[in-house]
Design a protein that fits this description.
Number of strands: 2
Largest sheet: 2 strands, antiparallel
Radius of gyration: 18 Å
Strand order of the largest sheet: 1-2
Helix content: 55-70%
Structural class: mainly alpha
CATH superfamily: Plant lipid-transfer and hydrophobic proteins
Number of domains: 1
Number of helices: 4
Strand content: under 5%
CATH architecture: Orthogonal Bundle
Order of helices and strands: HHHHEE
CATH class: Mainly Alpha
Distance between the termini: 49 Å
């Protein structure tokens, strides 16, 4: 039978592992933000028509993944882009964004 001390220690270790993983993911996201901006910004700009993203853009989008994209998509960044185009780019590049999901500064509507 597990003691209260061993249960507490197990929960503490689990918390530290999760927190450590979040820091690594956060650092990874920040490191890849410049490539994401460089290769994908023209596909999410306000105004103009919706354009299919390039293979270079999709390569970066796929490498960072949904969680990272959502972590980078703050309210202030979301205001600077066409969020419908951003969702289109993510989905066109093969990421799954479910309707109703909160992704950074936006709610995925459809």
């Amino acid at each position: 039978m597990a003691t209260a001390a061993s249960i507490c220690l197990t929960k503490s270790l689990a918390f530290l592992i999760v927190a450590g993983n979040m820091l690594v993911v956060s650092a990874f996201c920040r490191e890849n933000a410049p490539a994401l901006i460089q290769r994908c910004s023209k596909f999410v700009q306000k105004g103009g028509s919706q354009i299919t993203p390039s293979s270079e853009c999709c390569g970066v989008v796929k490498s960072v993944g949904v969680e990272c994209l959502c972590a980078l998509l703050t309210d202030s960044i979301a205001k600077q882009m066409d969020t419908n185009k951003a969702v289109f780019v993510a989905r066109t590049c093969g990421l799954t964004l479910q309707p109703g999901r909160k992704c950074g500064g936006i709610n995925i509507l459809s």
